[in-house]
Structure formats: structure tokens, C-alpha cells
Amino acid sequence: MKILYLLKKEPDTAIQQIIAFQTARYTVRQVELYNLELSYEELVDLIFDYDQVISW
Q1: Using one digit for the tens of pLDDT, what is the confidence trace for 18-47?
Q2: What string of DSSP letters covers 6-32?
């Protein structure tokens, strides 16, 4: 499974632990919306490319 995390701010310890737990089992990518270097089109493509999208 491919999981995409959209982070609106720097993740706290609990969120980091959740992401680390899932990274060990799945393909995980984090996108820092507060430091976004992607275009809107690239972001939309990523959203449709992943099985699950989680926004924090």
C-alpha cells in the first residue's frame, strides 16, 4: 500500500511515530505543505497516485 501524508505544519512526536511505524510496513511519502516545493498539478497527481492520503 502507498500512503501519502500531507503535513500542514511540522509533525509533533506522536505523528512522527505513526509515520515511522507505517514507513516500516508500507511505501510512505511526506509532503510538507508549509514548505511546498511542488506545483499544484504535481500535488494533485500525487494524491491520485497513492492508495491512501492522510492530512495532518
Answers
A1: 999 999 999 999 999 999 889 999 999 999
A2: EESS---HHHHHHHHHHHTTSEEEEEE
Three-state SS at 33: helix
CA dihedral (45, 47, 52, 56) in degrees, to 10, reads: 150
pTM, full prediction: 0.91
User: What would the grid cell of residue 18 be?
Assistant: 505513526
Each domain of the chain, given as residue ranges in start order, spans: 2-55
Cβ atoms of 46 and 2 within 8 Å: the answer is no
First to last CA, the chain: 19
* Residues 49/24, Cβ–Cβ less than 8 Å: no
